[in-house]
Amino acid sequence: MIRKKNARHFLLLSVSCMAAITFSGCTSSSTDTETATPKATTAESTAAATAAASQKPNVTPVTFSMSTADNKISWDNPVSKKLTEKTGVSLKYDLIVGDEKQKWDIWLAGGDYPDIIPLDPVHIKKYKDAGAIIPLNDLIDKYGPNIKAKYGEYFNLLKSEDGKIDSISSVLLNKEASPDASPNFIIQYDVLKEAGYPTIKTLDQLYDIISTYVKNHPKIDGKETIGYSAAMADWIMDAQFNNPITFAAGLSDHGNFRIAADGKVTYNPLSDDAKTYDQFLNKLYTNGLLDKETFSLNMDGMRAKMAQGRVLAAFAPSWVVGDTEKSLRAAGKPERAYAHIPVYFKEGTVDHNNTITPTGGGTGQWVITKNAKNPERIIQFIDYLFSDEGQILTHWGIEGSDYEVVNGKRQETKDKIAKVAADPDYAYKSGLKSVSSGTAGDWFSLGNGTKLGDGDYATPVTRDSVVANYDAMTKEVLSKYGKKVWADFLPPVEKVPGYLWQLTPPDSTKVPGQKISGDWRKLVPKVVMSKDAAEFESNWQLMKDTIVKDGLAAYEADFTKLWADFNTSYHKQLGK
To answer: For residue 377, how far is the Cα from the chain centroid?
Structure first.
């Protein structure tokens, strides 16, 4: 599934630097998921955890520096102050202005870097090779009982190939899709209403309903109606022209690749499904239903058109939709908001794209640099964040202000709900927003839908809270399809070790990768804008031949080996 906020420009995760792309697991009775039964740790690790937990925490005031590229994050807020009260630790944020990765390189070259840096896998390796970060094994053994408990039987996956733990990020213990998850194709409420709320399963059915509505409503609020929008400018093209193919085929999201049952990796934009999707786009184009600016549009431009209420449908994951629906509702156009539904190439598709990896590995993995004094205090601080008490504080907030306990269950206060609705920066001001700890999001999230030892949820994102934030029209549309939340449209969750896009490609793929990507970006517009079927076939063949010529076979072979090596390492570390 496409991950929220950072999308396809995540830096890729190397096998040697993996923070642990694993299944969920738990070895402590203090944390559980919906139905999981905690597994016992070894006697040795249990004893170590018990001994560490029994030690009186050191809350002597201490401040550590930490880098961030987010200028809204500060330590002056209720949650941060409570963290200092509980751990003695304060963070002094070192703001990076400009290119974050370039700054990391400058710091490394000069040896002048903060105590804590949330790095991507490529830079973890750079810092490790330079001796700039410290291994965390002994520190976690001595001061990390909650870290070990939460990672459980998958703890060894934190280790790189040399056995050292170089970084740490979130571990995801949810066994179900997040209640606020949603399918990635969208279609306007009013389009569905006018058509009588039909069941839409295929791209052909989506085309028909769009075409009919445009004929009946060629303009919306005086502007030309756009049947289907997409954006090709800059990095967004991968998500807009490749990911729809993956999701319409019901496949797991491996970026610009697909992986066969035998492990063979192939380039997705040249698959038969890709040809079918490009034919769908071509049909939209030749009939005036595709956004005329598609090939010069970036994500912000696409969002702007959606916020005007004249885009009927698109492939738009929630992170692409952004706040456009809020803008539509604020403008008094709730009927222009979107239903989020799965759409396939053909009916009867068995959908395997609702997957969960057990950790938030990827970008934003916390490392402790050699410049840090008292690194044991940093690990103690992180360990508190992994504790049930720390999870409640950093995800629910302050009891009495952000949440209250009613009949033994936490629920957000009306005051907090109102503040969140009125102030987009409330998460910053309250301290619920933090420096990334992996693709999972803020602090060290265990994942929406995970339950803690008290049987209550680890985060306030529950089905009830999601429904509570829906407007009347959203609830009405969902009821027409027998659903309560958009996540109900998703197939059952499947657990996977990881995704190919999280792995760092070998150096041998760099040059052919640039050529192949360049070929695709240059030629796919010609394919989509072909004037007839014959020209489409000619342009498709030209694109395919050009990409094959530029080293596709070796490129795919290298990624096939990368995937095989990753799986071998993964299972070896698990002892399976």
So the answer is: 30
- DSSP letter at 295 equals G
- The helix or strand, by DSSP H or E, that contains position 555, with its residue range, turns out to be helix 552-574
* 3-state SS assignment for residue 319: helix
Q: Minimal CA–CA distance to 18: which of 574, 576, 545, 397?
A: 574
pTM for the whole structure:
0.79
252-298 pLDDT, tens per residue? 999 999 999 999 999 999 999 999 999 999 999 999 999 999 999 99
**20 phi and psi, to 5 degrees?**
125, 90
Which tens digit of pLDDT belongs to each residue from 126-164?
A: 999 999 999 999 999 999 999 999 999 889 888 888 999
In 3D space, the residue among 547, 521, 498 whose CA is nearest the CA of residue 13 turns out to be: 498
For residues 361 and 169, is the Cβ–Cβ distance under 8 A? yes
What amino acid is encoded at 465 in this protein? S
CA torsion through residues 372, 132, 170, 432, sign: positive
**What pLDDT is attached to residue 576?**
63
Q: How far apart are CA 514 and CA 500, in angstroms?
A: 17
The phi and psi torsions of 359 (rounded to 5 degrees) equal -135, 165
CA end-to-end span of the chain, whole Å?
Answer: 26
277 close to 203: Cβ distance less than 8 angstroms: yes
| Separation in Å, CA 460 to CA 331, 395, 467 | 28, 7, 12
